[in-house]
Fold each of these.
Amino acid sequence: MDVLIIGAGPAGMFAAEKLADETNHTITVIDMGKESVNRKCSTLSRDMCTKCEPCDIYAGVGGAGALSDGKLNLTPHIGGDPDSLHRSADEIRRYIQKVDETFLKYGADTDIFGVNDDDLNLLKRKASAHGIEFISGKQRHMGSDKTPLIIDKFYKELKQKGVKFRTQTKIETIERSGEGFIARTEGEAFKADFIIAAPGRAGAYWFRTQARKLGIDNKYGPIDVGVRVEFPSTIYEPIEEIMYDAKFKLYTYTYDDLVRTFCTNPCGFVTEERYPDFVMVNGHAKKDEKSENTNLAILSRIELTDPVEDTTEYGRSIARLATTIGGGKPILQRFKDLATGQRSTWTRLARCQIAPTLRNATPGDISMALPHRIVTNIVESIERLDNVIEGIASDSTLIYASEIKFYDTKYPVTEHLETNIPNLFVAGDASGHSRGIVYAAVTGILAAEGIVHKGE
Ligand SMILES: Cc1cc2nc3c(=O)[nH]c(=O)nc-3n(C[C@H](O)[C@H](O)[C@H](O)COP(=O)(O)OP(=O)(O)OC[C@H]3O[C@@H](n4cnc5c(N)ncnc54)[C@H](O)[C@@H]3O)c2cc1C
């Protein structure tokens, strides 16, 4: 039997491993990006973006996580939802352990964060006194400089086990053919009895078009729209000692909207995430090279109902507008300027206590780009978070726009992530059932397990 896996991110790689270990199927993994060790984003060394296509930040072996700092959230309560996978939290925990063991085997650091209950409870109490929920959980941090090497060892072992990889190869279309499928690139056709579609957020929009054509059911969910916030690393130190990437959640007083912090990078760097028609921001932290700043995302949840439900389109239009206002670059603004409604300039930014780690940005006015409701939510949230992350609402805190998390198209699936089209499985962030490396990997294993069972 032929299994085709679209996407060599954590979902695709962990699916390939399970299939290689437990079946005699021919497994081919296709990715439009490069091998992990050849992915070199110039912005990670703070050079100008060379606008490679597809962007090395999110495409290639290892997926979007390969050049990230690899914060592994080792709890079923971060990065996904056991209910949406028809599983109990304990079941998911067992899969998470397996994923963690694999990363450890290939060289992830043995240090674990978020294990001191007394400190965690203290932080929980402090946050809830201000109407903020602190979500705790164990975390491991691989580090941006280590993650590509860990991925490369995993990749080489998969190849030794007989998994075939095709990099720099983009699947354009998927068609049904009898009980199986044909996936086509511009010049080649791949026959498959089973497909696991794991194209990540970068390929989610593309896959949605294919899914509609194939008659795969889907539902619209929310997206998270917001900014990346950067401040002196000393401000975050007391929290970092308790949990490396602490997650905070609150409902704004003004709109009663959910806002959350996401992907905190102590002593990290803000980076660009470039797509064909817009640019967004993200952040990462390195194990060996440290900046004087810490960054995190502040994201406001958007759900749309009748007559417009397509949150992806809405989010994309916000990203395009922000890119236009930034002249093709992310917009950068001091918190003081955002809160008081004035544009930032390099002269005003020079008065900040910190220097931006992403220089390839345009000083401007984020309120010209993001909807008023989101800007209000962001300003209010930063002011409230100041009670927990003391100093984050300082005048010279830097705000970059936009950062948008697209995982709104959700496919109703079985407990093995099979869609309503038999033998077509989805996994990872593009499935709408994961939002991070570990959960993406778990969904990959679950999908592979579904194929293993079919052969029994
Ligand atoms: C800068 C950055 C930092 C991050 N940091 C963290 C972190 O610290 N911790 C964490 O948990 N998460 C982090 N994330 C998110 C995490 O990387 C993703 O949640 C995770 O990688 C999703 O895994 P996936 O396998 O679903 O998809 P991806 O990792 O996105 O992989 C999908 C792959 O599919 C390929 N692809 C897409 N379409 C096609 C096509 N048509 N044909 C062929 N190939 C295709 C892409 O090239 C890509 O390599 C970060 C993301 C970014 C961008």
Amino acid sequence: MSSNEDPRDDLSVTPPKTWATGLPAVTHALEYSLGQTSVRRTALTLLNINQAKGIDCPGCAWPEPAPGKRHMNEYCENGAKHINDEATSRRVTADFFREHSIAELDGKSDYWLNQQGRLTEPMVKRPGATHYEPIGWDEAFGLLARELKALASPDEALFYVSGRLNNEAAFLLQLFARAYGTNNLPDCSNLCHESSGRAMQETLGTGKGSVSLDDIHHSDLIFVVGQNPGTNHPRMLSALEETKRNGGQVVAVNTLPEAGLMRFKHPQKPRGVIGRGTTIADQFLHIRAGGDLALFQALNLMLLEAEDAAPGTVLDHDFIRTHTTGFADFAEHTRKVSWEHILEATGLSREEIQAVHDRVLQSRKVIVCWAMGLTQHKHGVPTIREVVNFLMLRGNIGRPGAGVCPVRGHSNVQGDRTMGVWEQMPQRFLDALEREFGFTPPTRHGLDAVNGIRAMHEDRAKVFLGVAGNFVRATPDSAVTEEAMRKCRLTAHISTKLNRSHTVCGDTALILPTLGRSDRDVQATGEQFITVEDSMSEVHASRGKLPPASPDLLSEVAIISRLARTTLGSTPPLPWEDFEADYGTVRDRISRVVPGFDDFNSRVAEPGGFRLPNPVNSGVFPTPSGKAVFTCNAFTMPDVPKGHLLLQTLRSHDQWNTIPYAPNDRYRGIHNARRVVLVNPADLAALDIADRDEVDLVSIWRDGTERRAENFRVVGYPTSPGSAASYYPETNVLVPLDSVADFSNCPTSKGVVVRLEPARTPG
Ligand code: SF4
């Protein structure tokens, strides 16, 4: 398909795959890469991606093995696609914007916009204009600074960060926002793993996972819950393969039997190319959507009962006594959970749960991994708290081969938080900023992503700066979000490629094009590198290798530094020019503000960098009581009226976050269409809907409002009974802004109540 065609909706369906990766993954990765750029550039990116002195993959946050143990092809199909999507030879120039009005661009698909290539120079849309036009960098900074300074309060500005942003730029952005006077630093983590951070902070005193890659390799039993590693963290499959080869077991818990959970063919090993590959899941629990809390309550109940039957042999009393509080209340609460409720909520049989329980009893070292399938439910926080209860019962926290493992989806989403991009950074971080930089940061908590949309919608926020990402398509309630963005006085995006957030814009809009991960970054003192932190708290360097996509690009560090200097002048007096000229000076500051980064510059210069300490691995739980906390978690079934289904929004395999790379979902057997809804055949029969019928998806919300996504084809698919699945961002329109997880404000994109109606205007 050429870059100037929008994909035609021409659905064909083949049986879902029963294994992931293998040679087809290599073929697809190369096909996509060579469609974007030359053989030479493809070779350069692929030889360097995830290597010790190379380019960190801009894809997910799965860690690499230690430098000596890395394969020369240490990447997956998606990693290869991401890096060459960025390294594309296609360019979006001023002529392109002269040719296409914003309204016309707004009518194009996400796929088409992305396929146009790299942005090359700063552009502005002036009030009332129909097109973007070129603008010089200084004028762009002046315009943005004027708008920021004209606001009645700094809290009328939002500074959004997506997980591609590197540590140095993230640190400077939060420094700028706080020096300017606001904590309004929403990020993409608000939309995905906020429930994880919230639950773990409360129970363990730290919002990060506790395990390393080595722990994964040497665990006895790994749960993979609400997660689809074959598509979203593909190299996790080689880690799980290693677990299996070392004698460990895997239990997969999901609403869909994803190919990557079943069997993996390692494309770099002969057994993966010519053999049958490795079975990943020893047991697959085809759970009901949102049933995970009940599952872990059941396992906890069984562990308590097993301990009753054989006192002193099941629970880790030493760990519980020494390191935790709240056990007695938790045990009393858990003993009241009814099996009737568990079986209804999970849709599993008692025998299936008993079989998992038996595996747990045989395992000394247990890890639970999870992703959005847990976090994006109304009870996402209680579910993860229950996972922590489960692990603590047998002391599976803080010892080798055991622990909590929230798997992050974007390369530096964890690092951005570490650097202070959060609307609620603790006072000790703000105090450290004050000590280092000599100004008093604001203490009032800022707005997260959902509250930021509300604020823009209600005219309480008027300037939006997005760094990386595609805010308009990553967020829920698309119609409301788009209205909110259009109400802004000014929207500005620091971006590498064109996306919908540039076409849904404020009165004035700026596109500030920046270097990608793969671009060489040369500043006044010479060539620079940036750093990132992966899902397992490994901090390492990334060095671009390609000539920048255009001579008019600035790095993110340079853009933020110059904007800060233009906006703030010398109040407070911060050395923005030095930061831009030498990123080492930023790292020096980080080392004095952010715990765990002592001697940052020299430690990160080591191949592979260093791992940030996680206190729980030293038996330290930084909660108010100094102990890990058992919790009592209530659960009510989502209210799904008769004739309705619980919809989860998800990615296709041929997609990266909000951007489809092709209109396919190869592993699930969906081709040439994205407006597709997967529904269990038994539900289709009960609803009297036939396979391939054209329907509108209508979500209902408790205030009586309905939201509609039109013209979807129904495909019978083994989703768990009562649930449906469909791709985002097309279905984000169905997720009400007010439908959020308790305690974390994370959109409930995995639990949207919908009904399927015959299409109002069949296509
Ligand atoms: S697993 Fe994630 S980080 Fe690794 S190559 Fe694939 S997308 Fe990139």
